[in-house]
Amino acid sequence: MSARQLRRFYTPLCLLLFTALTACSSLQQIADVQKPKASVTSASVKSLSLDQATVLVDVVLTNPNPFTLHAVGFDMNMAIDGHRLAAVSQPDSKLAIPANGRNKMQLPVTLRYQDVIAAVGSIANENALNYALDGTVFVDVPVLGNLGLPLKFTGSLPVPRLPQITLKDISLESINLSGAKLKVDLDVTNPNIFDVNLKSVNYDLMANGKSLTDGALKQIKLRQGKTQNVTIPLSVSTTNMGLTLYRLLSDSNSVTMGVKLGADIVPGISAWQPGPLKYEAQRTLNR
User: Fold this and answer.
1) What distances in angstroms separate CA 211 from CA 201, 219, 239, one per listed residue?
2) Considering the chain, what is the average pLDDT of its residues?
3) Which of 72, 87, 231, 281 has a 20 to 30 A CA-CA distance from 155?
4) What pLDDT, on a 0 to 100 scale, did the predictor assign at position 50?
5) What is the pTM of this model?
6) CA–CA separation, 81 vs 111, rounded Å?
7) Roughly how many angstroms between the first and final C-alpha of the chain, as a whole number?
8) 170 and 160 Cβ atoms separated by less than 8 Å
């Protein structure tokens, strides 16, 4: 047999052997395929309001195989006291998990407080809710098909509350021909499990529907779950009071005073961005 004939004979044979070896190698890889893993590493609050909360769930997928895998969908449920009240599902979500590596995905779950109230009752006295997450990530694995990898996690979710203001007293410290000195005592309570600051605090003192004096206070820092007394000393000129009110105050007659207060709320948690705080109350002047 000539050299040319040998080449014509051995070349297809070599190609056949190479193909067979490659196939065997691929079959060996498939035979050694390992199940991927999934776990929830953390959950953070993305946004908060007085009506609902959205939690971002961090899921890590680990691929122990020497070839890339793909997540093909997921679902996640949030339960409060055993009641499933929120869910997210993306059956066609695609995510590549590199060979011998890992990748991360974030699942947003939104909980409405009205659903919690309907399921477990009032949450008016709650400043946090304990929740449980359970779900499944589906990964396409050779030979094994679409595997469902279970996910579980528990955590606590803050329920934001507006600061509470109570008018304790309005008292007359002194009065003379030039004017009067008064004092307003307030209790300001932070019912939250995080600190809250009140900025741009402004006030207005009224009597008989007329504004006597207004002004602004420095920032009020409220520690979590604490009540702080705020005293506002006020000076009102006789001109602002008017003769009628001056006579009422001088004769120790009852006078109904009104206080208006406004402030910007700056929580110690960036996920909550509430609107301005407004407060108004009336009290009979205490001498």
Assistant:
1) 17, 23, 12
2) 88
3) 72
4) 95
5) 0.79
6) 14
7) 128
8) no
